Amino acid sequence: MKRREFITALGGAAVWPLAAQAQQSKKIYRIGYLTANLSSYPWVNGFVRELSDRGYSEGNNLTLEWREAKGHSELLPEMAADLVRQNVDVIVAVGNYPGLLVQKITAKIPIVVLSSRGGVEAKLYSSLSHPGGNLTGIDNLSPDRDVKRVEFLKEIVPKLSRLAVLYNPLPSHASNHLNSISSAFEKLGIEAQPFEVRSPPEFEVAFASILRKRQDTMIDAMTTVTDPMFVFDRKRIVDFGIENKIPNAHEYREWVQIGGLLAYGPTIDGIWRRGAYFVEKILNGAKPSDLPVEGPSEFHLAINLKAAKDMGLSVPQHLVARADELIKADVR
To answer: pTM for this structure?
Structure first.
């Protein structure tokens, strides 16, 4: 072999592994995102920003495959199947139902469930500490926080003794959740009166029933057992409370920001940002079954002072001082 040919061959041999490494370092990860109501989740931006802070950004080494049902849950099964056909690296599913759908059709693709509720009872996870299978995530269910929220509400509505509870009975955890908070409310001297809402048209039926009971002085206030459908239609629920001067308490601050009276619970932005941690761990080789399911770590008390004033209610000063967020003007 001539000297020039030898150098060329040697150079090619030396360069080829470097080229291969560069090719590998440019791997584009594909994250599937499945939700019923993406358009109502502005906090999804926090998830994307956190991924970027962890080194995964669109246009660089990440592609996000968004699948949003826009409130039409019947579309979710095909959307889930499509993400599995796409063979994405990780699927982020928002809530129990999307998580269960994906779980049924793939045991291979890692799944991160954001904001599951009673995930063990719903058969998403074997346990919170050892979720098993190909799922992990963040579970929100906490009757203790429901009780704390109502304790705050009772400080604003001292006469509170009968509480309307809007809930969707369809999720597998819903009845157990309702039973646990009803028992806890009794210890506060409060009777929980449940009103079922299985689909959006049933809101009006529930609202009419609440108004009838309120006329008979059988309803003092209202709360909600969080459900994706309720989150999507939260303005409808809040507007009902405003128009009929019904004090109302909810889980997320977003309800108070559109006119609800009080909210106490985790920050959705915090949950979504923490979701990026799970995605990063999995992309770096961790198995979902080795990542314990977490609960929320940030909690937020929000009070709408204008809503309280409009309802003729007075918020105790110590509660004002305790609040993380106060709404003082009309934000509708």
So the answer is: 0.80
